[in-house]
Amino acid sequence: MCGIAGYISIKSNLITDQSFGESLDMMAHRGPDARGVWSDDLAYLGNRRLSIIDLSGGNQPMEDETKRYVITFNGAIYNFKELRTELESQGAKFHTRSDTEVILESFKLFGFSCVNKFNGMFAFAIWDRKKQTLFAARDRIGVKPFYFSHRNSQFTFASEIKSIISMPAQEQKLDWNGFAYYLSFGYIPSPHSIFENMRKLLPGQFLTYSPQLDKLHIETYWSLPSTSDHECTKEEAEAEVLEKLTSATRLRMVGDVPVGTFLSGGLDSSVTTALMCCLTNEEVHTFSIGFQDKGFDESSYARQVSQELGTVHHELSLDAPDTGTLERIICQFDEPLSDRAAVPTYFLSKLAAEHVKVALSGDGADELFGGYDRFFSGSRYLSDSSSPIMSPIWRFMGQHWPNQMRGRSRLLLKSLDGAQRYSFYTQRYTDDPAFSNSYMRVLNPSVQEKIEVSTREYMEKIIEEASGNTSLGQLMFADMRSYLPEQCLVKVDRTSMLASLEVRNPFLDYNLVDYVMGLPTSIRLPSSNIRKELLKDISVGIIPDSVINRPKQGFNVPIGDWMRGPWHDWVSDVLHYVTLSDIFERSPVEKMWQEHVQRKRDWTHLLWMIIVFGVWQQRYLAR
After folding, report:
1. pLDDT of 532 above 80
2. Which positions ≥6 away from 260 have C-beta within 8 Å?
3. Ramachandran region of residue 584, left (φ > 0), alpha (ψ -120 to 50) or beta?
4. How far is it, in rounded angstroms, from Cα 215 to Cα 226?
5. C-alpha angle 226/430/190, rounded to 5°?
6. What is the pLDDT of residues 343-402, one digit of tens each?
7. pLDDT tens digit string along 399-419?
8. Rounded CA separation 12/38 (Å)
């Protein structure tokens, strides 16, 4: 795992070895083991390396034998040994044992289609000195990030935004549409970002850039399956899923450094840990985090599973961190992300990094196998649409409903069709001013005029992509395309990299994802009231029944109590700063804060979104 950066332009005289190196070193946490910079007349490539495979021979940027191609790579190719054998049979010669060189040789032999060969998490860029063209790609699921900017005949890219905005000709101007997406969903979906002229490569995409022509081209090489096309029995599906998950776990244990696993005591991490224990004769180190607030602490479950499986267990009991560390975590994302679990995920990663360099995680199982309550409650929205005749009537009634009477939101929801209802259901603040939770009610009118996007259409369009599936299938597809890559995986990548830890996700092996997403909902979730039923069925005999049958508990964090308690003065200062910037209206923000402090209402979710934005704003826009 690494941090990568690049600057490609006919104006390369605008950047120096020193300034590019300084931009690269802003990601030193992603790669503390080695640093490399390569350049010619048109291109700069840089790499900060966290050494996992071929510790002495895999330094980057790496040139091929002919010195025509140069690569900088972030991630891991799990099937690199098999690919290396295939490449050697066709005449390729290798000088290292690294997966980086396998990518380089694959590109030389297969061209752009090399990405279809890779099973892994990756973001990489290859500069072709002869054709003077850059090729870059991002993995299918979106585990690894790839940010880029293309303006004024300059193309810059990096694993993190902070490196790009420090390069020449970069302006730190707020993208108001990206801001609107953040308020609606708590994250900013690809290809958008919080900055103007800053974009993200989508999962399963590659790009080419020619500085001589100043031409950027983007293509999609893989798409998430949106319909069910596998015909099999439940027993056949269980056997195939277990085989693919076991294989995915085995592949992710590859490396020349110690590998451990996160263990919460829930189904997903317990299965991952159990499979890992079966696949190795060495000690398995597991890591969990709890809270000193016993109402949020679940560490006893992880301890129980560890004892059952015989792992070497490490745990940390977390109380409210100091606000300096908190701001560091928030700003690590370089754009607002309101996932409160980022705080404990960083401390969990920090704990693991004291003992191992790689940790396996259960991320993706909920989205893949149907673990969220919203899939089941939300599917009712899709199947219960308003009639074209009644829809405008319900909306008119809702818009004119007396403020002092309850029922406005129910009437407005009845005016929406299925996809619109679920889109509303997933939004934290909606962009529809008729609803009481519209972000228009807390924004300055001048800001409202700058927003040009309808954020609700983002989720509606994704749901429509899977229109041939069942309601449950559509919603699981939507989460795999939105919430998982745009929030969950972003959270894990940035917080683990801040601790210099590589996190690998067996449930996100694309072979497993392809297979499970192609299964009928009747096999994935045969009962309408049992979450992750298929995964639970294959877990019998692998993990304790008590884990399989225990109700799901999310990674809940006592942020709301910390805001009232040890963080009170800090929160007050941040909210005061936010309301001075003419973005948020002071009165509704102050009212929410007072009601939260006085425990009249729990405004944790919405206040945290504003706080995160305020901390980000102070760091990135106050210059």
Report:
1. yes
2. 284, 285, 286, 287, 352, 355, 356, 358, 359, 360
3. beta
4. 32
5. 45
6. 999 999 999 999 999 999 999 999 999 988 888 776 666 666 656 666 666 566 666 566
7. 656 665 665 566 556 656 566
8. 13
Structure tokens at 39: 């350049």
CA distances from 274 to 267, 284, 285, 307, 362 (A): 10, 10, 12, 12, 12
Give the tokens for residue 21: 């190196």
d(C-alpha 584, C-alpha 163), whole Å: 29
Contacts of 576 (CB under 8 A, 6+ apart): none
In order, the DSSP letters of 361-430 are: --TTHHHHHT--HHHHHHHHHHH-PPPTTTHHHHHHHHHTS-TTSS-HHHHHHHTS-HHHHHHHHH-SSB
Q: What is the average pLDDT score of the chain? A: 90
Name 544's Cβ contacts closer than 8 Å, sequence gap at least 6.
270, 304, 305, 308
Instruction: Return the structure tokens found at 166.
Output: 């420090």
Cβ atoms 447, 440 nearer than 8 A: no
307, 573 Cβ separation under 8 angstroms:
no
pTM of the predicted model as reported, rounded to 2 decimal places: 0.93
* pLDDT tens readout for residues 168-184: 878 899 999 999 999 99
d(CA 352, CA 264): 13
Tell which wins on pLDDT, 386 or 211: 211
- How many angstroms from the chain centroid is the CA of residue 34? 25
Residue 334's region, left for phi above 0, alpha for psi from -120 to 50, else beta, is left
Instruction: Tell me, letter by letter, the H, E, C secondary structure of 136-179.
Output: EEECCCCCCCCEEEEECCEEEEECCHHHHHCCCCCCCCECHHHH
Interacting residues of 481 by C-beta distance below 8 A, sequence separation 6+: 224, 462, 465
Q: Are strands 358-360 and 502-504 parallel, antiparallel or unpaired?
A: parallel
Q: What is the largest CA-CA distance in the chain?
A: 77
Alpha-carbon span 508 to 369, nearest angstrom: 12
Answer whether 464's CB lies under 8 Å from 417's CB. no
Q: Which of 2, 114, 277, 488 is catalytic?
A: 2
Sheet of 199-200, strands arranged across: 34-39, 43-49, 2-9, 154-158, 147-151, 199-200
- Rounded Cα distance between 97 and 95, Å, is 7
CB contact set of 90 (below 8 Å; sequence gap of 6+): 109
For tokens 């900017």, what's the residue? 149
DSSP conformational letter for 550: S
Is 488 designated active site? no
Residue with tokens 């983002």, as numbered in its chain: 458
478's enclosing H/E stretch is helix 471-481
Q: Tell me the residue type at 528.
A: S
**In angstroms, what is the C-alpha Rg of the chain?**
24
Q: Collapsing DSSP states into helix, strand and coil, what is residue 327?
A: helix
Provide CB contacts within 8 A for 367, sequence distance 6+: 476, 479, 480, 483, 484
How far lies 246's CA from each of 271, 279, 373, in Å?
Answer: 10, 9, 27
